[in-house]
Amino acid sequence: MIFSIEGHIPKIIDETKTMTRRPTDRYKIGKLYAIQPGRGKSGISEGKIYIGMVQREWKPDLSSLQEDDAKFARRFWAMEAGYPIQDWASKAEGGYTPDEFEELYEKMYPGWTERWAYHFTFFSKEDLEEIQSSSRNLPE
Fold first, then answer.
1. I want to staple 101 with a disulfide (CB 3.0 to 4.6 A). Which of 43, 58, 83, 90 is the partner?
2. Any residues with CB less than 8 A from the CB of 80 and at least 6 apart, and which?
3. Average pLDDT for residues 58-72, to the nearest whole number?
4. What is the pLDDT of residue 84?
5. Which helix (H) or strand (E) holds 47?
6. Which of 68-72, 74-78, 83-87, 89-93 holds the top average pLDDT?
7. pTM assigned to the model
8. Which domains are delineated in the chain?
9. Rounded to an integer, what distance in angstroms lies between the CA atom of residue 69 and that of residue 77?
């Protein structure tokens, strides 16, 4: 999985970034993914991420609503759709405020209407080696 925004990879390693949102649902629950600093670049040697949960989010079109109705609808959609992002989730994205995150996401994916929120756990190289070693010692 590509993490090209400066500072995101160190936040993954120190576990302050535990979520990522993408406009695609290609990543699967229960799988390990390399952490790539850019397209076509090798994964980092420090470890991998494990996708533990994914949820679909969408951005509703409120343009046809009156201003008071739109304010109410935004509060409802934040609970139902995941948009705008909640405070706890923007922090899990790497320490952003909700406004900072939504601005960044819109800049990366202008005009988006649907996205997937991936909850992940970082496993260090040592963690992965220990897991692999212990699985070899299981009785058959």
1. 90
2. none
3. 66
4. 82
5. strand 47-58
6. 89-93
7. 0.85
8. 8-135 (2.30.130.30)
9. 12
